[in-house]
Specification:
eight-stranded mixed beta sheet, alpha/beta, 12 helices, four-stranded antiparallel beta sheet, 37% helix
């Protein structure tokens, strides 16, 4: 009996170690403040309840329209900005519960490659110093091995050793991105956030950088979160793909599953825009009507219902459950509700209708609008100033 318990404990630890990163209900809200009194009058819900997990040694692609919160997710994961709610578990440790000392120890293991290689490199430092500054700071290698280590890292990223004394302005866009990759790789990381690393490059250079990232992943057992607009690149490099819309994850699955059988109406519209290299093939493009709602005032119910052709009445007021529709394929859409979920949605709709009827009855006190609340706060502030 004891042997069985030991075996199960080992299996549990192995399954936990399979995932280098786990994100649970992550939220990041940016406060909207009034111009005069700096009162918080609302929030921009940049990331609103995102959950996913990345297996060690794999790549997860994160796609969506501009402003959906992809880059904010990447920066929040690395604790480059604070969270509003949720958990980020890296190697079994919640990053946001670490002290400054503990976070400093774990920093080399989590790195980022920024979108613009030129603005992320100091123009006053030579390349050798840019790549090696953090290596020296974190004591990655002994001082006597420092120069050889930097040379090895540069060669691994396709950079010549004699580039060490040159400055960023002397390089092309592709070479600068290689320098950014070398800077991240020099700290011997386990996890790297690639925040649109090829969007500012030519197509031929994009292919070189993508192949370099894949080669480094095989050689150093790296794990990537690859954020991009280019769906063809994401399909090529990713093992799993997550689709975001207005701060929320609407679909997540393995790359083959999600590209061959997208479930969410937004994913179908997004993937219909991928160009096909065949002049005789007629693309069935799904054109979304309307504009993206504001993340400061998202629609009630399903956030996508204002642009969805398959919109039902429950979509307008009931938030769909983010659930596993088929093995390993997660989706947040009422089209895939079970009978129980449909009944629960109908009950919730009835409650909302009853509440609306009560609110519209004469004699019931109406809630003060936000503008009146802000005006009252301003008047109170002025009164207190005059008293002083």
């Amino acid at each position: 009996m004891e042997d069985i318990v030991k075996d199960t404990a080992v299996n549990e630890s192995e399954t936990k170690n399979d995932y280098v990163l786990e994100v649970r209900n992550l939220k990041k809200y940016f406060p909207i403040k009034s111009s005069f009194l700096r009162l918080v009058i609302g929030n921009v819900k940049a990331v609103d309840g995102v959950s996913f997990a990345i297996k060690r040694g794999t790549t997860m692609g994160l796609v969506g329209e501009s402003g959906c919160g992809k880059s904010t997710v990447g920066r929040t994961l690395l604790r480059l900005q604070s969270k509003t709610e949720g958990e980020v578990i890296f190697d079994g440790v919640d990053i946001f519960k670490l002290s400054k000392k503990e976070l400093r120890k774990i920093r080399p293991k989590i790195q980022i490659i920024f979108q613009d290689p030129y603005s992320s490199l100091s123009p006053r430092m030579p390349i050798g110093e840019i790549i090696g500054e953090a290596v020296r700071e974190h004591n990655i290698v002994p001082p006597e091995e420092y120069e050889d280590y930097i040379s090895r890292i540069m060669r691994a990223c396709g950079l010549q050793e004699y580039y060490k004394d040159r400055y960023p302005h002397e390089f092309s866009g592709g070479q600068r991105q290689r320098i950014c990759i070398a800077r991240a790789l020099a700290l011997n990381p386990d996890f790297i956030v690639c925040d649109e690393p090829v969007s500012a490059l030519d197509v031929s250079i994009q292919a070189q950088i993508i192949n370099l990232l894949k080669q480094l992943q095989r050689d150093f057992n790296l794990t990537y979160l690859f954020i991009s607009h280019d769906l063809s690149v994401v399909e090529h490099i990713s093992d799993t793909v997550g689709v975001m819309y207005l701060g929320s994850m609407v679909e997540y699955s393995e790359t083959e599953k999600i590209f061959s059988n997208p479930l969410h109406p937004y994913t179908k519209a997004l993937f219909s825009a991928i160009p096909v290299p065949d002049p005789d093939y007629k693309m069935e493009r799904i054109v979304l009507e309307g504009s993206i709602p504001s993340p400061a005032n998202p629609p009630k119910g399903c956030k996508f219902h204002t642009r969805c052709k398959d919109c039902m009445k429950m979509c307008e007021c009931v938030v769909p459950n983010y659930k596993e529709v088929e093995p390993g394929h997660f989706c947040a859409c009422h089209l895939y509700n079970s009978e129980e979920e449909n009944q629960a949605a109908e009950e919730e709709m009835k409650k909302l209708e009853e509440e609306a009827e009560l609110a519209n009855k004469p004699g019931t006190p109406a809630a003060e609008p936000e503008d009146e609340v802000v005006e009252d706060a301003k008047e109170e502030e002025k009164a207190s100033e005059t008293k002083e």
